[in-house]
Automatic annotation (TrEMBL):
Protein's UniProt name: DUF2469 family protein
Natural source organism: Glutamicibacter protophormiae
InterPro entries tied to this protein: DUF2469
């Protein structure tokens, strides 16, 4: 596969993933961002832990969707993440997920 073909393939996969995200985002309560992954989840538990002076985070996500173009199955029942990097957890506002009717008219 040539470089351009690979780039086009990855662009197509990313577009498909974005469309899937737009379809499923309304099913979840939280957005979780780590250094390596982006998740949607219905339950999130974050624990701050330390070992030998190093602080890290343990996240447990339940009923999650994983943003990853290389995963065949993006829906997972439970995910456990350990990270030394920043973690961002946001609760989704259901009203923001709806497209305003006036935005559809031109």
């Amino acid at each position: 596969m040539a470089g351009d073909e690979l780039e086009n393939y990855e662009s197509d996969m990313e577009l498909q993933l974005y469309r899937e995200y737009k379809t499923v985002v309304g099913l979840f309560n939280f957005v979780v961002e780590t250094e390596r992954r982006f998740y949607l989840a219905n339950q999130v538990d974050v624990k701050t832990l330390s070992n030998a002076g190093e602080v890290y985070f343990e996240l447990t996500l339940t009923d999650a969707w994983v943003w990853d173009i290389y995963r065949q199955g993006r829906f997972v029942k439970a995910v456990k993440v350990l990270t030394f990097k920043d973690v961002n957890v946001e609760e989704l506002n259901r009203d923001e997920l709806q497209i305003p009717k006036e935005g559809l008219e031109n």
